[in-house]
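Office hours follow-up: a student asked to see two folded examples consecutively, so here they are.
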Amino acid sequence: MVREFEYQGETFRVTAHGVHGHEEIFIVHIEEDGVEGAEISIDRMTEENDTSAPIEAILVMLCDKLIPQSEIKVQNPAAPFAWREGNVVFQVHDGLQDTKHD
């Protein structure tokens, strides 16, 4: 899965693969100009974590570490986690790539 989300008024991108509770998860902060910034990751197969927690809870936990470590000045500290709807350029089904037509 590659998907964007917002937390504390900031945009992040998650790349995750694996089965629930045992994913490798990478997040990157997307800066205002669209440039990829600071990043953090967790391997839920080997690192201590609650393997029953939903991925959203793990993303919040990672953001709560990344924001102070990277001195990210958040836009809105009270803003909750929310998935973003992105611009889908390609849809993959049965291993074949299909260009989305508008």
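And the second, which I mentioned at the end of office hours:
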Amino acid sequence: MDQSFPHIVIAEHEFLIALDAEYLIRSAIDCRTTLVRPEQLGQWNTSALADVDLCLIDVPLDMSGIAPAIQRLVDAGVPLLLTTVSEAHQRGVAGFETLPVATKPFEADTLLAMVKAQLHRGAQPADQN
């Protein structure tokens, strides 16, 4: 696939949910996708993270295991879209209140609007953020 297309990483605990997100996104956006489990993101080095234009990352009710990975991605400048089934996180995730949250099961139009907004936001020069 063309390397000029945005690279979207879908970090999800449930493989079928990751496939659903990938299908919805790729049906509307020309992009490259990578499916991983959230804990695998810890193995990605700085140059691998620099190739990521957007990361959708699953946020479980217990944030203790995933919060460091989210903070690492934030620090690396990776645009994020948090995903959750938890009612507790639907209005924002403690410690990461400025990050958007998409709820599962995904509603196609809502998910695509959020993905496009994050891709657009991430594509802006740093001095415009």
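Two things to take away from it. Confidence is low (pLDDT under 50) at residues 124-129. The chain is about 35% helix and 20% strand.
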